[in-house]
Amino acid sequence: MDQSKVLLKSTLVYTIGNIGSKIITFCLLPVFTFYLNKSDLGKYDLMLNTISLLVPFVNLQISDAVYRWLIESKGDEEIKKKAITNGLVVVTVSTLLFIGLFWIVNQFVHFEFSVYFIFILVVSCYFPFLQQLIRGLGKGNLYSLVGIINALLIAFVNAFFLIFVKNGVSGLFIALILANAVSIGFIVYSLKLNRFVSLDLFDLGEAKKMLSYSWPLIPNMISWWLISTIDRYIILYFLNTDANGIYAVSTRFPAIITVINSVFLLAWQDHAVVNESKTDFVSNTFRKYIIFEFSLIFLLIAGSRFMVEYFIDARYLESWQYMPFLYLGVAFSSFAAYVGVGYQKERKTVGIFVTTLVGTVVNIIISSVLINYIGLFGPGIGVFVSFFLVYLIRLKETKSFFPVHVDNVLFFSLLFTAFLIMGLSFLDNKLFNVLAVVIAVGLSLYLNRELIRKIVLKGKVMLKSKVNYN
Fold first, then answer.
1. What pLDDT, in 10s, does the model give residues 182-193?
2. d(C-alpha 66, C-alpha 214), whole Å
3. Which of 143, 234, 397, 422 would bridge with 324, disulfide CB 3.0–4.6 Å?
4. According to its UniProt record, where is this protein located (predicted)?
Protein backbone atom coordinates (compact mmCIF):
# COMPACT_ATOMS: atom_id res chain seq x y z
CA MET A 1 0.00 0.00 0.00
CA ASP A 2 1.13 3.56 -0.74
CA GLN A 3 2.96 5.16 2.24
CA SER A 4 0.58 8.12 2.34
CA LYS A 5 -2.45 5.82 2.48
CA VAL A 6 -0.90 3.74 5.27
CA LEU A 7 -0.20 6.92 7.25
CA LEU A 8 -3.76 8.17 6.63
CA LYS A 9 -5.27 4.86 7.75
CA SER A 10 -3.27 4.92 11.00
CA THR A 11 -4.26 8.55 11.57
CA LEU A 12 -7.96 7.68 11.25
CA VAL A 13 -7.61 4.86 13.79
CA TYR A 14 -5.90 7.14 16.31
CA THR A 15 -8.41 9.91 15.62
CA ILE A 16 -11.26 7.69 16.80
CA GLY A 17 -9.21 6.35 19.71
CA ASN A 18 -7.91 9.65 21.06
CA ILE A 19 -10.02 12.58 19.99
CA GLY A 20 -13.23 11.65 21.82
CA SER A 21 -12.12 12.14 25.42
CA LYS A 22 -10.21 15.33 24.56
CA ILE A 23 -13.15 16.90 22.75
CA ILE A 24 -15.50 15.88 25.56
CA THR A 25 -13.19 17.57 28.08
CA PHE A 26 -13.12 20.71 25.94
CA CYS A 27 -16.91 20.72 25.50
CA LEU A 28 -17.34 20.42 29.27
CA LEU A 29 -15.34 23.62 29.79
CA PRO A 30 -18.43 25.90 29.80
CA VAL A 31 -19.97 23.58 32.43
CA PHE A 32 -16.78 23.69 34.52
CA THR A 33 -16.60 27.48 34.39
CA PHE A 34 -20.29 27.74 35.36
CA TYR A 35 -20.20 25.36 38.35
CA LEU A 36 -16.67 26.04 39.62
CA ASN A 37 -15.11 29.28 40.77
CA LYS A 38 -11.71 30.35 39.44
CA SER A 39 -9.86 29.04 42.49
CA ASP A 40 -11.40 25.53 42.31
CA LEU A 41 -10.85 25.33 38.57
CA GLY A 42 -7.25 26.37 39.16
CA LYS A 43 -6.81 23.59 41.75
CA TYR A 44 -8.36 21.00 39.43
CA ASP A 45 -6.16 22.08 36.54
CA LEU A 46 -3.05 22.12 38.74
CA MET A 47 -3.79 18.60 40.02
CA LEU A 48 -4.26 17.14 36.53
CA ASN A 49 -1.18 18.85 35.14
CA THR A 50 0.92 17.72 38.10
CA ILE A 51 -0.19 14.12 37.56
CA SER A 52 0.44 14.38 33.82
CA LEU A 53 3.92 15.59 34.72
CA LEU A 54 4.58 12.80 37.23
CA VAL A 55 3.17 9.76 35.39
CA PRO A 56 6.05 9.35 32.91
CA PHE A 57 8.54 9.60 35.79
CA VAL A 58 6.61 7.05 37.83
CA ASN A 59 6.24 4.47 35.04
CA LEU A 60 9.59 5.44 33.46
CA GLN A 61 7.83 5.61 30.09
CA ILE A 62 8.28 1.84 29.85
CA SER A 63 5.11 1.68 27.72
CA ASP A 64 7.06 3.15 24.79
CA ALA A 65 9.63 0.38 25.09
CA VAL A 66 6.91 -2.28 25.29
CA TYR A 67 5.32 -0.82 22.15
CA ARG A 68 8.68 -0.83 20.32
CA TRP A 69 9.44 -4.42 21.36
CA LEU A 70 5.96 -5.58 20.31
CA ILE A 71 6.04 -4.07 16.82
CA GLU A 72 9.47 -5.64 16.27
CA SER A 73 8.45 -9.06 17.63
CA LYS A 74 7.39 -10.25 14.14
CA GLY A 75 4.71 -12.49 15.61
CA ASP A 76 6.98 -14.23 18.13
CA GLU A 77 4.61 -14.96 21.05
CA GLU A 78 7.39 -15.43 23.61
CA ILE A 79 8.90 -12.03 22.80
CA LYS A 80 5.44 -10.46 23.17
CA LYS A 81 4.80 -12.14 26.52
CA LYS A 82 8.25 -11.24 27.83
CA ALA A 83 7.92 -7.59 26.77
CA ILE A 84 4.45 -7.22 28.31
CA THR A 85 5.45 -9.01 31.52
CA ASN A 86 8.60 -6.90 31.89
CA GLY A 87 6.58 -3.74 31.30
CA LEU A 88 3.86 -4.62 33.81
CA VAL A 89 6.42 -5.51 36.48
CA VAL A 90 8.25 -2.21 35.99
CA VAL A 91 5.02 -0.17 36.09
CA THR A 92 3.69 -1.97 39.17
CA VAL A 93 6.92 -1.82 41.17
CA SER A 94 7.62 1.83 40.32
CA THR A 95 4.02 2.84 41.11
CA LEU A 96 4.13 1.09 44.50
CA LEU A 97 7.47 2.74 45.30
CA PHE A 98 6.05 6.17 44.47
CA ILE A 99 2.93 5.57 46.59
CA GLY A 100 5.18 4.63 49.52
CA LEU A 101 7.32 7.73 49.03
CA PHE A 102 4.25 9.95 48.73
CA TRP A 103 2.77 8.49 51.94
CA ILE A 104 6.00 9.27 53.85
CA VAL A 105 6.15 12.84 52.53
CA ASN A 106 2.44 13.33 53.29
CA GLN A 107 3.11 12.63 56.97
CA PHE A 108 5.15 15.82 57.14
CA VAL A 109 3.63 17.99 54.41
CA HIS A 110 -0.14 17.70 54.02
CA PHE A 111 -1.42 17.73 50.43
CA GLU A 112 -4.99 18.75 49.70
CA PHE A 113 -6.92 15.97 47.91
CA SER A 114 -4.08 13.50 48.61
CA VAL A 115 -6.33 10.39 48.40
CA TYR A 116 -7.76 11.48 45.06
CA PHE A 117 -4.23 12.27 43.92
CA ILE A 118 -3.02 8.70 44.51
CA PHE A 119 -5.99 7.03 42.82
CA ILE A 120 -5.82 9.33 39.79
CA LEU A 121 -2.08 8.70 39.52
CA VAL A 122 -2.54 4.91 39.57
CA VAL A 123 -5.22 4.83 36.84
CA SER A 124 -3.22 7.40 34.87
CA CYS A 125 -0.21 5.05 34.92
CA TYR A 126 -2.04 1.91 33.82
CA PHE A 127 -4.53 3.28 31.27
CA PRO A 128 -1.98 4.72 28.78
CA PHE A 129 0.27 1.69 29.37
CA LEU A 130 -2.53 -0.63 28.27
CA GLN A 131 -3.33 1.62 25.31
CA GLN A 132 0.26 1.19 24.14
CA LEU A 133 -0.13 -2.60 24.43
CA ILE A 134 -3.15 -2.40 22.14
CA ARG A 135 -1.10 -0.35 19.64
CA GLY A 136 1.83 -2.75 19.78
CA LEU A 137 -0.41 -5.77 19.27
CA GLY A 138 -1.91 -4.12 16.19
CA LYS A 139 -5.49 -4.08 17.47
CA GLY A 140 -6.62 -0.82 15.90
CA ASN A 141 -10.36 -1.47 16.25
CA LEU A 142 -10.03 -2.16 19.97
CA TYR A 143 -7.93 1.00 20.37
CA SER A 144 -10.71 3.06 18.78
CA LEU A 145 -13.44 1.36 20.83
CA VAL A 146 -11.60 1.99 24.10
CA GLY A 147 -11.26 5.67 23.17
CA ILE A 148 -15.00 5.97 22.53
CA ILE A 149 -15.92 4.20 25.79
CA ASN A 150 -13.53 6.37 27.80
CA ALA A 151 -14.91 9.56 26.20
CA LEU A 152 -18.52 8.66 26.97
CA LEU A 153 -17.68 7.70 30.55
CA ILE A 154 -15.86 10.98 31.13
CA ALA A 155 -18.83 12.95 29.77
CA PHE A 156 -21.60 11.22 31.70
CA VAL A 157 -19.79 10.73 35.01
CA ASN A 158 -18.47 14.31 35.05
CA ALA A 159 -21.94 15.69 34.31
CA PHE A 160 -23.52 13.48 36.97
CA PHE A 161 -21.19 14.54 39.80
CA LEU A 162 -20.99 18.20 38.82
CA ILE A 163 -24.62 18.94 37.91
CA PHE A 164 -26.67 16.45 39.95
CA VAL A 165 -24.51 15.47 42.96
CA LYS A 166 -23.06 19.01 43.07
CA ASN A 167 -19.94 18.14 45.05
CA GLY A 168 -17.72 20.49 43.07
CA VAL A 169 -14.10 19.73 42.30
CA SER A 170 -14.17 16.47 44.32
CA GLY A 171 -16.78 15.13 41.91
CA LEU A 172 -14.48 15.81 38.96
CA PHE A 173 -11.72 13.80 40.62
CA ILE A 174 -14.07 10.87 41.35
CA ALA A 175 -15.39 10.98 37.78
CA LEU A 176 -11.88 10.76 36.34
CA ILE A 177 -10.99 7.81 38.57
CA LEU A 178 -14.16 5.88 37.69
CA ALA A 179 -13.94 6.55 33.93
CA ASN A 180 -10.34 5.40 33.66
CA ALA A 181 -10.81 2.43 36.02
CA VAL A 182 -13.72 1.07 33.96
CA SER A 183 -11.71 1.61 30.75
CA ILE A 184 -8.77 -0.31 32.25
CA GLY A 185 -11.07 -3.18 33.20
CA PHE A 186 -12.50 -3.29 29.69
CA ILE A 187 -9.01 -3.49 28.12
CA VAL A 188 -7.89 -6.25 30.49
CA TYR A 189 -11.03 -8.27 29.71
CA SER A 190 -10.89 -7.67 25.94
CA LEU A 191 -7.21 -8.57 25.59
CA LYS A 192 -7.48 -11.48 28.04
CA LEU A 193 -4.32 -9.97 29.45
CA ASN A 194 -3.50 -13.01 31.58
CA ARG A 195 -2.52 -14.81 28.32
CA PHE A 196 0.41 -12.43 27.93
CA VAL A 197 1.62 -12.28 31.52
CA SER A 198 3.86 -14.81 33.25
CA LEU A 199 6.28 -13.92 36.04
CA ASP A 200 8.43 -16.85 34.92
CA LEU A 201 9.22 -14.85 31.77
CA PHE A 202 10.39 -11.76 33.65
CA ASP A 203 13.92 -10.98 32.46
CA LEU A 204 15.83 -8.37 34.46
CA GLY A 205 18.47 -7.96 31.77
CA GLU A 206 15.87 -7.39 29.06
CA ALA A 207 13.95 -5.02 31.36
CA LYS A 208 17.13 -2.94 31.74
CA LYS A 209 17.49 -2.77 27.95
CA MET A 210 13.90 -1.62 27.68
CA LEU A 211 14.46 1.03 30.35
CA SER A 212 17.61 2.30 28.61
CA TYR A 213 15.40 2.94 25.57
CA SER A 214 12.43 4.40 27.44
CA TRP A 215 13.79 6.71 30.15
CA PRO A 216 15.21 9.36 27.76
CA LEU A 217 11.71 9.60 26.25
CA ILE A 218 10.28 10.90 29.53
CA PRO A 219 10.85 14.60 28.74
CA ASN A 220 9.55 14.17 25.19
CA MET A 221 6.34 12.58 26.44
CA ILE A 222 5.74 15.36 28.95
CA SER A 223 7.32 18.29 27.11
CA TRP A 224 4.03 20.19 26.78
CA TRP A 225 2.83 19.14 30.24
CA LEU A 226 6.25 19.76 31.80
CA ILE A 227 6.50 23.30 30.51
CA SER A 228 2.83 24.19 31.06
CA THR A 229 2.81 22.62 34.56
CA ILE A 230 5.94 24.50 35.58
CA ASP A 231 4.16 27.64 34.36
CA ARG A 232 1.27 26.85 36.74
CA TYR A 233 3.66 26.86 39.71
CA ILE A 234 5.38 30.02 38.50
CA ILE A 235 1.95 31.68 38.25
CA LEU A 236 1.02 30.37 41.70
CA TYR A 237 4.28 31.74 43.18
CA PHE A 238 4.20 35.17 41.55
CA LEU A 239 0.42 35.66 41.27
CA ASN A 240 -2.40 33.51 42.80
CA THR A 241 -4.81 30.60 42.26
CA ASP A 242 -7.31 32.89 40.50
CA ALA A 243 -4.66 33.64 37.88
CA ASN A 244 -4.10 29.90 37.55
CA GLY A 245 -7.81 29.50 36.89
CA ILE A 246 -7.65 32.09 34.11
CA TYR A 247 -4.55 30.43 32.63
CA ALA A 248 -6.26 27.03 32.88
CA VAL A 249 -9.02 28.26 30.56
CA SER A 250 -6.39 29.75 28.24
CA THR A 251 -4.68 26.37 27.88
CA ARG A 252 -7.93 24.47 27.20
CA PHE A 253 -8.35 26.03 23.76
CA PRO A 254 -4.82 25.13 22.55
CA ALA A 255 -5.74 21.61 23.64
CA ILE A 256 -7.79 21.44 20.42
CA ILE A 257 -4.55 21.49 18.43
CA THR A 258 -2.87 19.15 20.91
CA VAL A 259 -5.57 16.55 20.28
CA ILE A 260 -5.18 16.72 16.50
CA ASN A 261 -1.40 16.70 16.78
CA SER A 262 -1.28 13.70 19.10
CA VAL A 263 -3.43 11.69 16.69
CA PHE A 264 -1.20 12.41 13.70
CA LEU A 265 2.07 12.04 15.62
CA LEU A 266 1.08 8.60 16.92
CA ALA A 267 0.44 7.49 13.34
CA TRP A 268 3.67 9.17 12.20
CA GLN A 269 5.63 7.35 14.90
CA ASP A 270 4.13 4.02 13.83
CA HIS A 271 5.08 4.68 10.22
CA ALA A 272 8.53 6.24 10.64
CA VAL A 273 9.88 3.78 13.21
CA VAL A 274 8.94 0.66 11.23
CA ASN A 275 9.35 1.83 7.61
CA GLU A 276 12.30 3.13 5.64
CA SER A 277 10.84 6.35 4.24
CA LYS A 278 12.61 8.41 1.59
CA THR A 279 13.68 11.95 2.46
CA ASP A 280 11.22 13.35 -0.11
CA PHE A 281 8.28 11.61 1.57
CA VAL A 282 9.36 12.77 5.05
CA SER A 283 9.85 16.37 3.86
CA ASN A 284 6.66 16.54 1.77
CA THR A 285 4.59 15.13 4.64
CA PHE A 286 6.12 17.71 6.99
CA ARG A 287 5.33 20.52 4.52
CA LYS A 288 1.67 19.48 4.38
CA TYR A 289 1.61 19.17 8.16
CA ILE A 290 3.06 22.67 8.64
CA ILE A 291 0.43 24.18 6.30
CA PHE A 292 -2.42 22.36 8.03
CA GLU A 293 -1.10 23.29 11.49
CA PHE A 294 -0.75 26.98 10.72
CA SER A 295 -4.21 26.98 9.13
CA LEU A 296 -5.65 25.78 12.44
CA ILE A 297 -3.64 28.41 14.30
CA PHE A 298 -4.93 31.20 12.05
CA LEU A 299 -8.53 30.16 12.71
CA LEU A 300 -8.08 29.72 16.46
CA ILE A 301 -6.16 32.97 17.00
CA ALA A 302 -8.82 34.90 15.10
CA GLY A 303 -11.74 33.12 16.75
CA SER A 304 -10.62 32.82 20.39
CA ARG A 305 -11.92 36.22 21.46
CA PHE A 306 -15.39 35.46 20.10
CA MET A 307 -15.45 31.89 21.48
CA VAL A 308 -14.59 33.06 25.00
CA GLU A 309 -17.07 35.95 24.87
CA TYR A 310 -19.97 33.72 23.82
CA PHE A 311 -19.26 30.34 25.43
CA ILE A 312 -17.23 30.94 28.61
CA ASP A 313 -18.35 32.57 31.85
CA ALA A 314 -17.63 36.32 31.96
CA ARG A 315 -15.24 35.86 34.90
CA TYR A 316 -12.76 34.24 32.52
CA LEU A 317 -13.06 36.77 29.68
CA GLU A 318 -9.41 37.89 29.76
CA SER A 319 -8.22 34.31 29.12
CA TRP A 320 -8.44 34.76 25.32
CA GLN A 321 -5.53 37.24 25.37
CA TYR A 322 -3.00 34.59 26.40
CA MET A 323 -4.07 31.94 23.88
CA PRO A 324 -2.26 33.05 20.69
CA PHE A 325 1.25 32.41 22.06
CA LEU A 326 0.06 29.10 23.50
CA TYR A 327 -1.28 28.09 20.07
CA LEU A 328 2.14 28.78 18.58
CA GLY A 329 3.79 26.87 21.43
CA VAL A 330 1.64 23.81 20.74
CA ALA A 331 2.43 24.04 17.03
CA PHE A 332 6.19 24.15 17.54
CA SER A 333 5.90 21.39 20.12
CA SER A 334 4.37 19.21 17.40
CA PHE A 335 7.00 20.23 14.83
CA ALA A 336 9.71 19.28 17.33
CA ALA A 337 7.95 15.95 17.97
CA TYR A 338 7.72 15.23 14.22
CA VAL A 339 11.46 15.72 13.77
CA GLY A 340 12.15 13.97 17.10
CA VAL A 341 10.81 10.68 15.74
CA GLY A 342 14.21 10.43 14.05
CA TYR A 343 15.82 9.95 17.47
CA GLN A 344 13.42 7.10 18.22
CA LYS A 345 13.93 5.46 14.84
CA GLU A 346 17.70 5.35 15.40
CA ARG A 347 17.30 4.59 19.15
CA LYS A 348 19.18 7.81 19.97
CA THR A 349 16.58 8.80 22.54
CA VAL A 350 19.07 10.70 24.72
CA GLY A 351 18.85 13.48 22.12
CA ILE A 352 15.16 13.89 22.96
CA PHE A 353 16.02 14.13 26.65
CA VAL A 354 18.67 16.83 26.19
CA THR A 355 16.69 19.03 23.78
CA THR A 356 13.57 18.96 25.95
CA LEU A 357 15.65 19.82 29.01
CA VAL A 358 17.06 22.85 27.19
CA GLY A 359 13.54 23.99 26.27
CA THR A 360 12.33 23.58 29.84
CA VAL A 361 15.16 25.68 31.29
CA VAL A 362 14.58 28.41 28.70
CA ASN A 363 10.85 28.46 29.52
CA ILE A 364 11.48 28.75 33.27
CA ILE A 365 13.83 31.69 32.76
CA ILE A 366 11.58 33.58 30.32
CA SER A 367 8.36 32.95 32.28
CA SER A 368 9.89 33.89 35.65
CA VAL A 369 11.36 37.13 34.31
CA LEU A 370 8.45 38.32 32.16
CA ILE A 371 5.59 37.47 34.55
CA ASN A 372 6.67 40.35 36.81
CA TYR A 373 6.29 42.82 33.94
CA ILE A 374 3.51 41.53 31.67
CA GLY A 375 1.63 39.07 33.88
CA LEU A 376 0.21 35.95 32.22
CA PHE A 377 1.63 36.96 28.86
CA GLY A 378 5.03 35.94 30.30
CA PRO A 379 4.35 32.19 30.55
CA GLY A 380 2.62 32.25 27.15
CA ILE A 381 5.65 33.80 25.45
CA GLY A 382 7.91 31.41 27.38
CA VAL A 383 6.02 28.41 25.98
CA PHE A 384 6.29 29.69 22.41
CA VAL A 385 10.00 30.59 22.53
CA SER A 386 11.07 27.38 24.31
CA PHE A 387 9.34 25.02 21.86
CA PHE A 388 10.57 27.07 18.90
CA LEU A 389 14.11 26.60 20.20
CA VAL A 390 13.62 22.84 20.73
CA TYR A 391 12.36 22.51 17.16
CA LEU A 392 15.38 24.34 15.71
CA ILE A 393 17.88 22.28 17.73
CA ARG A 394 16.28 18.95 16.74
CA LEU A 395 16.08 19.96 13.09
CA LYS A 396 19.82 20.62 13.09
CA GLU A 397 20.83 17.60 15.22
CA THR A 398 18.86 14.99 13.24
CA LYS A 399 20.01 16.27 9.85
CA SER A 400 22.66 13.55 9.47
CA PHE A 401 20.40 10.54 10.13
CA PHE A 402 16.82 11.81 9.61
CA PRO A 403 16.98 14.74 7.17
CA VAL A 404 13.87 16.90 6.87
CA HIS A 405 13.98 19.65 4.24
CA VAL A 406 11.92 22.70 5.21
CA ASP A 407 10.72 25.45 2.87
CA ASN A 408 11.87 28.34 5.06
CA VAL A 409 10.22 31.02 2.90
CA LEU A 410 6.84 29.32 3.34
CA PHE A 411 7.51 28.56 7.00
CA PHE A 412 8.39 32.09 8.10
CA SER A 413 5.68 33.62 5.88
CA LEU A 414 3.12 31.53 7.76
CA LEU A 415 4.63 32.52 11.11
CA PHE A 416 4.55 36.21 10.16
CA THR A 417 0.90 35.85 9.09
CA ALA A 418 0.07 34.29 12.48
CA PHE A 419 1.50 37.38 14.20
CA LEU A 420 -0.43 39.65 11.83
CA ILE A 421 -3.74 37.95 12.68
CA MET A 422 -2.76 38.09 16.36
CA GLY A 423 -2.20 41.85 16.10
CA LEU A 424 -5.60 42.42 14.48
CA SER A 425 -7.27 40.31 17.18
CA PHE A 426 -5.70 42.35 19.98
CA LEU A 427 -7.02 45.65 18.62
CA ASP A 428 -10.05 46.83 20.58
CA ASN A 429 -12.10 47.25 17.42
CA LYS A 430 -14.74 44.79 16.22
CA LEU A 431 -14.09 45.66 12.57
CA PHE A 432 -10.43 44.64 12.82
CA ASN A 433 -11.37 41.57 14.87
CA VAL A 434 -13.77 40.46 12.14
CA LEU A 435 -11.11 41.24 9.51
CA ALA A 436 -8.77 38.86 11.34
CA VAL A 437 -11.40 36.11 11.05
CA VAL A 438 -11.91 36.81 7.33
CA ILE A 439 -8.16 36.65 6.65
CA ALA A 440 -7.81 33.46 8.70
CA VAL A 441 -10.67 31.68 6.92
CA GLY A 442 -9.59 32.87 3.47
CA LEU A 443 -5.97 31.83 3.92
CA SER A 444 -6.89 28.48 5.45
CA LEU A 445 -9.14 27.65 2.50
CA TYR A 446 -6.49 28.77 0.00
CA LEU A 447 -3.60 26.91 1.63
CA ASN A 448 -5.61 23.70 1.86
CA ARG A 449 -7.35 23.98 -1.50
CA GLU A 450 -5.86 20.71 -2.82
CA LEU A 451 -6.93 18.81 0.29
CA ILE A 452 -10.43 20.34 0.09
CA ARG A 453 -10.66 19.49 -3.61
CA LYS A 454 -9.76 15.85 -2.94
CA ILE A 455 -12.31 15.62 -0.13
CA VAL A 456 -15.04 17.12 -2.34
CA LEU A 457 -14.21 14.75 -5.21
CA LYS A 458 -14.17 11.79 -2.85
CA GLY A 459 -17.53 12.87 -1.46
CA LYS A 460 -19.01 13.18 -4.94
CA VAL A 461 -17.77 9.70 -5.89
CA MET A 462 -19.23 8.19 -2.71
CA LEU A 463 -22.54 10.01 -3.21
CA LYS A 464 -22.74 8.95 -6.86
CA SER A 465 -22.02 5.31 -6.05
CA LYS A 466 -24.69 5.38 -3.34
CA VAL A 467 -27.27 6.88 -5.74
CA ASN A 468 -26.44 4.29 -8.41
CA TYR A 469 -26.67 1.50 -5.84
CA ASN A 470 -30.15 2.64 -4.79
1. 999 999 999 998
2. 9
3. 422
4. Cell membrane
